[in-house]
Write a sequence for this structure.
């Protein structure tokens, strides 16, 4: 029977894992190697090689209503997209409210996690930690690894001939970036067009002499702001849209998406993406199109090679006098503290059952929390994982036999190991994954049942944002405030914008009620489809 649980890491996933364990009557101890909670969201000027931090200007890509923990909304006066400092403040509020800090041991590094000799019977782990130069050995009934996937910088120097042997300028990874001041007046080449590459290119363009952004991918750029000024994820991430994507042919949904993306600006004209491409990525950036339009950022193809001071690209063009090459090429994850037989088998989150449990273990007492790529908030996904895992450890939720888990993993596991940029293309649907884990945990809401018992709420959760509160309506851990949180989420969205109220202004969120009423017949039909 599981009682004592080791939680490794006190970032978002670690904090919520501690809370979920406490709710199930377990005894968690959280080990955090740094001096404070917050994980990557705790900004620091220090470039400690063992710790990854956000850079100074980071703003969230997901809105507050779609990013909060499911029973603890962000304060209503917080902006919809937040600076990293407010995210960290929210974590502190969460930890204080649920009294989590007394279960966290700061400046305590986990050195090793190994099976006990009687693991096949007990499922127990020996965890060795170090704090203040003193090593200590502990025995735990279960372990939750919450170190995330931003761990080791992925620096593919071998793919760029000349970068290490000939190039005389500065070469660094985005992990070392804090702000733009060190790049003032320089000619900078950014390699990689993920969210980080786009953000850094825009920021550097304000002080650098010139910024070049090199990419080999077809990339669609979307704004955080929807057509009517609401957060895009609140408008787009709905069960109704999710159902449409499932019903319509994939070629048609892809065409609709491309047309929508191009309604902001024509991506082909900017050299970013072609609607004929079958492989593409999406990034969130509100300013990159203007930087390309104004010439402060110049888009380039993949780099073929480097000389002493220039970059030669695959299209034959050359950019001279490059001072800095900044690699925004992502991260690799690793678990150096796990014993070799366990850690070596995890080369992708699809090596794990439901992206959580190593299927080869005789006892399911090890869980990897937060090692996911979603089209929505990873924080919310990590919380759902932690709720299910804590229920498994407490005996409320059951897993299938290891043979069945292994068969499912082998069916979905990729044939080869992918680098971080390729893993980006494997993002899972937020709603699909959340519903899958929620069903395992017994907390997935039923649209059909709600249509019969609470039509107003049913319409809100079907046509409105698939916000985290939906997963607190039923089952273990249900929250009495979930219904009110869902029905008031648009008011909280507008609250921080009402700093200047006009005489003829009205509550724009009320229009959603009319949308829901007009769409009632479709909701009834969709409800039956969901029940199948």
């Amino acid at each position: 029977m599981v009682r004592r649980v080791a939680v490794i890491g006190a970032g978002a996933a670690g904090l919520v894992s501690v809370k979920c364990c406490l709710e199930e009557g377990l005894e968690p101890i959280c080990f955090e190697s740094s001096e404070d909670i917050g994980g990557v969201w705790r900004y620091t000027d220090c470039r400690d090689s063992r710790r990854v931090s956000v850079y100074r200007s980071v703003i969230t890509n997901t809105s507050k209503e779609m990013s909060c923990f499911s029973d603890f909304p962000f304060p209503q006066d917080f902006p919809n997209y937040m600076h990293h400092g407010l995210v960290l403040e929210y974590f502190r509020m969460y930890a204080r409210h649920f009294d989590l800090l007394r279960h966290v041991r700061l400046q305590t590094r986990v050195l090793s996690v190994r099976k006990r000799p009687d693991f096949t019977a007990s499922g127990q782990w020996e965890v060795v930690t170090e704090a203040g130069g003193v090593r200590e050995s502990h025995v735990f009934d279960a372990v939750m690894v919450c170190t995330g996937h931003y761990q080791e910088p992925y620096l593919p120097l071998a793919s760029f001939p000349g970068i290490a042997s000939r190039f005389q300028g500065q070469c660094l990874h985005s992990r070392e970036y804090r702000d733009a001041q060190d790049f003032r007046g320089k000619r900078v080449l950014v390699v990689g067009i993920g969210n980080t590459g786009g953000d850094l290119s825009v920021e550097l363009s304000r002080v650098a002499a010139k910024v070049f952004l090199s990419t080999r991918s077809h990339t669609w750029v979307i704004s955080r702001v929807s057509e009517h000024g609401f957060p895009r994820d609140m408008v787009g991430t709905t069960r109704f849209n999710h159902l449409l994507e499932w019903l319509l042919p994939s070629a048609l949904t892809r065409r609709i998406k491309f047309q929508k993306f191009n309604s902001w600006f024509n991506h082909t004209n900017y050299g970013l993406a072609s609607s004929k491409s079958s492989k593409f990525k999406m990034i969130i950036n509100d300013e990159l199109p203007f930087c390309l339009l104004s010439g402060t950022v110049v888009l380039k193809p993949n780099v073929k090679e480097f000389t002493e001071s220039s970059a030669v690209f695959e299209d034959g063009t050359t950019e001279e006098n490059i001072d800095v090459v900044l690699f925004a090429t992502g991260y690799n994850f690793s678990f150096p503290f796990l014993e070799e037989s366990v850690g070596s088998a995890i080369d992708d989150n699809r090596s794990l059952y439901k992206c959580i449990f190593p299927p080869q273990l005789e006892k399911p007492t090890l869980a990897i929390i937060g090692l996911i790529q979603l089209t929505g908030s990873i924080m919310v996904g990590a919380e759902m994982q932690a709720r299910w895992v804590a229920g498994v450890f407490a005996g409320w939720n059951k897993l299938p036999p290891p043979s069945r888990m292994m068969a499912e993993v082998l069916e979905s596991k990729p044939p080869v190991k992918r680098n971080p940029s390729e893993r980006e293309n494997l993002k899972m649907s937020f709603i699909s994954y959340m519903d899958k884990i929620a069903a395992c945990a017994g907390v997935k809401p039923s649209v059909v049942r709600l249509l019969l018992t609470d039509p107003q709420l049913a319409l809100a959760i079907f046509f409105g944002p698939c916000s985290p509160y939906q997963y607190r309506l039923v089952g273990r851990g249900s929250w009495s405030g979930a219904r009110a949180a869902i029905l008031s989420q648009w008011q909280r969205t507008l609250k921080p914008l009402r700093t200047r109220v006009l005489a003829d202004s009205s509550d724009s969120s009320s229009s959603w009620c009319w949308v829901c009423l007009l769409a009632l017949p479709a909701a009834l039909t969709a409800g039956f489809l969901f029940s199948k």
Summary: Confidence is low (pLDDT under 50) at residues 513-532. The domain at 4-151+333-431 is CATH 3.50.50.60 (FAD/NAD(P)-binding domain). The CA atoms of residues 130 and 424 lie 34 Å apart.
